[in-house]
Structure formats: C-alpha cells, structure tokens
C-alpha cells in the first residue's frame, strides 16, 4: 500500500492525521506505533476505506481508495479494535458467516473453515458458542474471520490490547504464521515489545505525524550507544545530583541523562567505556551506588529519545478477564 500526504480532519476540526507518507511493500510485517490518540486507528480506517481522506493519495493493493473503494475492501482483511464476532454463534458459524459475507465460493467453504479453525487453534471448540470464549479466543476467532477471503494484506488494529501476555503470544504466532505464508501485515500497536518482536519495519506516529521510521534495529541504533543504568541510595535529590554529575562529564558527550525511580540512566556511545568513571565521580560526591548495568537500547529508549516521553502501555495492566471458558478448555492460563 502507498499513502502520500494523507490527511484526515474530523468534522469537529480535529486534525487526526497530518501529511502522512507511508509505503508498505508486499510481504512486509509493518508496525504502526504510537500512544493513545496519536492517529493510528484513523489512518487504518482510511486505508481500509471506512473513512475518506481529507487530502492525499492512497492506494491499497493497486486500487485507489477514493475511486475504487470496493476493490480495496475485497482485497484486504481488517481486524478492528472491537471484536466483531457474534457471541450467539459458534466459532465455526462465525467463520461460515464471514465466508458468506466475503463471497467465498460455496465449494471452498468447508475446507477454508477447517483450515482457519486450525490456524487459530480453535478446532477443538469449533462447536462452542463464542460467548463462552475468553478474550484471547475471541480475538483469535476475529482474526480468522478477517482472513476467510485470503486477502494479500491484513490490517490489524491493536489486536492484542487488553490481552494477558499468554493470550497475546498465541495471537503473535498466528500473525507470524500468516505473514510467513506471504500475507502483508499492517499492525497498529501501543506495545513496544510487540512491535519489536513482530515487525520488519516500524513507523512511529505522534499527534498525527510520523516522527520516525525504520526497522527496530535501525531505530535502536539511532538512539546512539548503550544505556547505563545506575541505582542509587536515597531519594529524588540524590538522583538529581547524580544526573547533574553525569551531564557534566565530557566523556559522555551529548549523552541523554534521565532520572528514574531507582537512580539515573545515561545513554551514550561511551556508556560502557566510561561507566566506571561515572561510578568514581558519584562516590567522590558521597552518593551511594547500589546497582550498575549497561544494556542495549530498547524501543522504549527510542520512543523516549524521539518524544521525550515513555510509551508506557503495560500489556498486563488491563488484561482481559471476561469469558467463562476454563484454562482446561483453552489451555490459556493467567486469565
Ligand atoms: N470521530 C471522531 N471525531 C473527532 N475526533 C476524533 C474522532 N475519532 C478520533 N478522533 C480524534 O482523533 C485523534 C486520533 O485518534 P485515533 O483514534 O486515530 O488515535 P489512535 O492512535 O488510534 O488512538 P487509540 O489507541 O486510542 O485508538 C484523537 O485526538 C482522537 O480524539
């Protein structure tokens, strides 16, 4: 898909997406990362023809969203943030219904349904009603219904939000599986770990604009160097003093220094080489170091470097607990 100068302003004047350029080649696992309200869903809805862009050119699978929206819709899968499974129907019936809606030829339906139930690991509960399913199972069923017409490109809008880590990991497997089979994936997420684990390439959106893009490795490299984590005794005052000392040390160049709950972090090319110099300087200032670690940057460091803020969407915060199905049925613990 290709978008140039994409803009979407809502009727109330909210400029949700402002001049976005995006190109996702065939076969890529692409991640669209950003905090709540950054413009991810708005962008995906334009790409899936659910909203008309206010400005810009967008083509999906070679079809223009403005002039050929029907062809676009027939050539994509779309998994919305809210699951679209019908709780009154069984897993199999939900997929059968999607087959009818997407016009899958009658002769192909039985095989297609069996394949998809297998793919999302719901074959054993094919005859159970979806209202008995856990949040993770409903999401997997939803993913299956988005794939019935074998689209070459699938849009997944925050598919794992609210799921516990185990349910989330199972969904990841299916996404990787369909990507391995050649399906292009456009995934929005606010989970850095998810983006890192799955995506070949990422774009970070903030306030409707793309502020960075590249592979997870590229983005981490751009942070520059490694991250030195120093834990300190005492409270915020000591952390501030330690941060000031690190900032004054010429060996760290223009390092990014941040205070944390435990102490400070220093991100610098010289983190490893001059870490001990920092420890000596802190000791000389009567600051007591209780821990010390040098690590590679994470995507959270990337986000911090770009935006000055952490993207702290913790996947376990609001883990889905609905659904009556037991772990024994689904094998999905920790709900
Ligand atoms: N129908 C609407 N009318 C007016 N403003 C809207 C509408 N839908 C979304 N917005 C606003 O547009 C901006 C982008 O929202 P969007 O839902 O695209 O963000 P998002 O990155 O998907 O966030 P989330 O993770 O919360 O879904 C936000 O400021 C949001 O409040």
TrEMBL record:
Domain ABC transporter: 1-232
Leader sequence residues: none
Keywords: ATP-binding, Nucleotide-binding, Transport
GO molecular function: ATP binding
Pfam family, one: ABC_tran
Family: Belongs to the ABC transporter superfamily. Drug exporter-1 (DrugE1) (TC 3.A.1.105) family.
Protein name as annotated: ATP-binding cassette domain-containing protein
Lineage: Archaea, Methanobacteriati, Methanobacteriota, Stenosarchaea group, Halobacteria
């Amino acid at each position: 898909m290709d978008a140039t100068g994409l803009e979407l302003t809502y009727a109330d004047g909210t400029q949700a997406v402002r001049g976005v350029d995006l190109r996702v080649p065939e076969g890529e696992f692409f991640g669209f990362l950003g905090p709540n309200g950054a413009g991810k869903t708005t962008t995906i809805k334009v790409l899936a023809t659910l909203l008309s862009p206010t400005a810009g050119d967008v083509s999906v699978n070679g079809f223009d969203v403005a002039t050929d929206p029907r062809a676009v819709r027939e050539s994509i899968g779309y998994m919305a943030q809210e699951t679209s499974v019908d709780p009154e129907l069984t897993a199999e019936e939900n997929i059968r219904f999607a087959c009818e809606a997407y016009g899958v030829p009658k002769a192909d339906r039985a095989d297609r349904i069996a394949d998809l139930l297998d793919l999302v690991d719901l074959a054993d509960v094919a005859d159970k009603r979806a209202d008995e399913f856990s949040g993770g199972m409903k999401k997997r069923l939803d993913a299956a219904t988005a794939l019935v017409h074998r689209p070459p490109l699938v849009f997944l809008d925050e598919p794992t939000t609210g799921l516990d880590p185990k349910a989330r990991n199972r969904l990841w497997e299916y996404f990787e599986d369909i990507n391995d089979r050649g399906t292009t994936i456009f995934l929005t997420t606010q989970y850095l770990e998810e983006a890192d684990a799955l995506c070949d390439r990422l774009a970070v959106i903030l306030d409707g604009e793309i502020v960075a893009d590249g592979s997870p490795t590229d983005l981490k490299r751009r942070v520059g160097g490694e991250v030195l984590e120093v834990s300190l005794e005492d409270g915020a005052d000591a952390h501030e003093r330690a941060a000031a000392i690190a900032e004054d040390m010429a060996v760290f160049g223009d390092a990014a220094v941040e205070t944390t709950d435990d102490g400070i972090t220093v991100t610098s090319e010289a983190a490893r080489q001059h870490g001990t110099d920092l420890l000596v300087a802190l000791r000389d200032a009567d600051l007591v170091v209780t821990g010390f670690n040098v690590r590679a940057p994470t995507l959270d460091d990337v986000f911090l470097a770009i935006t000055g803020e952490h993207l702290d969407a913790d996947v376990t915060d609001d883990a889905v607990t609905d659904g009556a199905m037991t772990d024994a049925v689904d094998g999905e613990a920790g709900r």
